[in-house]
From TrEMBL:
GO terms for cellular component: mannan polymerase complex. Residues 1-20 are annotated as: Disordered. Signal peptide: none annotated. This is Glycosyltransferase family 34 protein. Keywords: Glycosyltransferase, Membrane, Transferase, Transmembrane, Transmembrane helix. It comes from Schizothecium vesticola.
Length: 311
């Protein structure tokens, strides 16, 4: 008897039972792999190409043009135009002699959000660094002050690292006489970015020097914090400065405290070190009224003009 021949079915299922869907899935995976490979090749190209090698972060160093900007804030509502013109003339003569620039801000130039007008000095300093991004130093000098020695420069006589190493006041209370926070004993002149003086009452914010750079911008942003401006400090920005210097080690680590007569002699010795001939600048400290301040300034204006004429 012959049995009819029947083809035997395969003993296993087809390898792709869902053949209609697998090609699409495979294409999707291949696309992902291709994109990943392209991204990797692009990264390798950017890293290894001759002009595109990765370089470590480097802080921008201003070129020093101009070397110094002298900043003064003028209050036209309180002081006579004659007095303010004498102050401007003094700064301009000094700047022209040394290749510096001047910047005259006015009370009312900036929106202070109801903060005391004395805060203008801080926001004006920020403005200076925007206008002169390559300056090396910013010297803020109060309007009630005059530059008396045209021969002295900020670079050589104030901020020179070797001179700072000799003259900095170290391991001393930041706010005398009882502050437990003291200036760093190991600070070197080359590390100073903010130069300041004290008087008999504490830190004096009427004359200071700031080295331009990223640290300077951090410092000014910290000082101008809205919290400090809204706080009812008795001496506004001066007491805010005393606070941040004492409680922010990052700022204290760059603070160079120097003898008052370096940049900030007073017209009398009642509140601090009195001016002596040869000092860089003098501030009229007993300005009970604008008219009294202008009268006190008269002999110094004459002396400073004579000094510039003979220099």
């Amino acid at each position: 008897m012959h049995l009819a021949y029947h083809s035997r079915k395969a003993s296993s299922a087809p390898p792709f039972p869902r053949g209609a869907k697998m090609p699409g899935l495979r294409r999707s995976r291949l696309k992902v792999i291709a994109l990943a490979g392209f991204a990797l090749l692009t990264l390798l190209y950017l890293v290894t190409k001759p002009n595109g090698r990765h370089t470590p972060y480097k802080e921008y160093t201003p070129s020093g043009r101009p070397p110094v900007v002298v900043l003064t804030v003028l209050d036209e509502a309180k002081y006579s135009s004659t007095y303010l013109e004498a102050i401007k003339e003094n700064r301009i003569q000094y700047a022209e002699k040394h290749g510096y620039k001047t910047f005259f801000a006015k009370v009312g130039d900036y929106d202070m959000n109801n903060a005391p007008s004395s805060w203008t000095s801080v926001v004006a300093a920020r403005h200076v660094l925007t206008q002169f991004p390559d300056c090396r130093y910013l010297w803020f000098l109060d309007q009630n002050a005059l530059i008396m020695n045209p021969q002295r420069t900020i670079e050589a006589h104030v901020m020179d690292p070797a001179r700072l190493d000799e003259g900095m006041i170290k391991d001393y209370p930041v706010v005398p006489p009882d502050s437990i926070i003291k200036t760093f004993s190991h600070l070197r002149g080359r590390d100073v970015e903010f130069l300041l003086t004290q008087d008999k009452d504490g830190l004096s914010s009427g004359s200071w020097v700031l080295k331009n750079g990223e640290w300077a911008r951090f410092f000014l942003e910290t000082w101008f914090d809205p919290l400090y401006r809204s706080y009812n400090f008795q001496k506004a920005e001066t007491h805010a400065l005393e606070h941040i210097v004492q409680w922010h080690p990052t700022i204290l680590a760059r603070l160079g405290l120097v003898a008052q007569r370096t940049v900030n002699s007073y017209s009398t010795g009642d509140h601090g070190e009195a001016y002596q001939p040869g000092d860089l600048a003098v501030r009229f400290i007993d300005c009970s009224t604008p008219s009294a301040c202008e009268k006190e300034a008269e002999p110094y204006i004459a002396q400073s003009r004579a000094a510039f004429q003979s220099s």
